[in-house]
Write a structure and sequence with these properties.
Elements (H helix, E strand, L loop, with lengths): L1 E3 L9 H7 L1 H19 L6 E5 L14 E5 L5 H14 L5 E4 L8 H10 L5 E5 L5 E6 L17 H11 L4 E3 L9 H9 L1
Parallel strand pairs: 1-2, 2-3, 5-7
Antiparallel strand pairs: 4-6, 5-6
């Protein structure tokens, strides 16, 4: 599952836009979306793009490779929980979610996440900012989406604490950088 925002001027990468302006932020976001498509298109799994506002049929997500839906209602945790619940109701055995703001993400890392789910109940890709860029599981663990301070440095440690409290076997992927601020762009290019 890929969670994306519809690429609209002034509505994407707002923290980044504060430094570079909304036009440049939209340009950067479109580049991030393109990167995410390249990373995921050839991964041999079913793929579903969840849009923030409305499904766009003729966009950079080819209909032959990606199913398309609108994100469920609620805050981020509620949206992700409902999306995982729907996937497991549709009888998927392993489900991974990513966002669209990690230029360091590779096809190999996404494939590694599914590989790890063969021997672990949960896989997490921690982000340098304290969040995560990827979360995967073999069945719904609703606690991982509840009581979180989304978009803060507490998300990954609090999620990991829940995983450990629930005694779930887990694997961690490489720690990568998300693009949220102008400083993150330099990190992406230097690593």
């Amino acid at each position: 599952m890929l969670f994306v925002r519809n690429p609209e001027l002034g509505k994407v990468k707002t923290r980044l836009a504060a430094a570079v302006g909304p036009e440049k932020a939209l340009e950067i976001y479109l580049h991030l979306l393109e990167h995410t498509r390249k990373v995921t298109q050839e991964v041999p799994v079913e793929k579903l793009v969840y849009y923030s506002n409305e499904v766009e049929q003729d966009d950079l997500w080819p209909n032959e490779h990606y199913q398309k839906r609108v994100q469920p209602a609620g805050e981020l945790g509620e949206k992700m929980e409902a999306s995982f619940a729907a996937a497991f109701e549709e009888e998927y055995a392993s489900v991974v979610i990513i966002g669209s703001d990690c230029l360091q993400l590779t096809q190999e890392i996404v494939a590694q996440a599914f590989e790890e789910l063969k021997t672990h109940e949960v896989v997490i890709g921690p982000a340098l900012d304290g969040g995560y860029y990827l979360l995967g599981m073999n069945r719904l663990h609703a606690d991982l989406f509840r009581n979180k301070q989304w978009s803060t440095e507490h998300v990954f440690p609090d999620t990991l604490q829940d995983v450990q409290r629930l005694n779930l076997s887990y694997a961690l992927l490489p720690r990568l950088s998300d693009v949220d601020y102008v400083e993150d762009l330099g990190q992406e290019q230097s690593q």
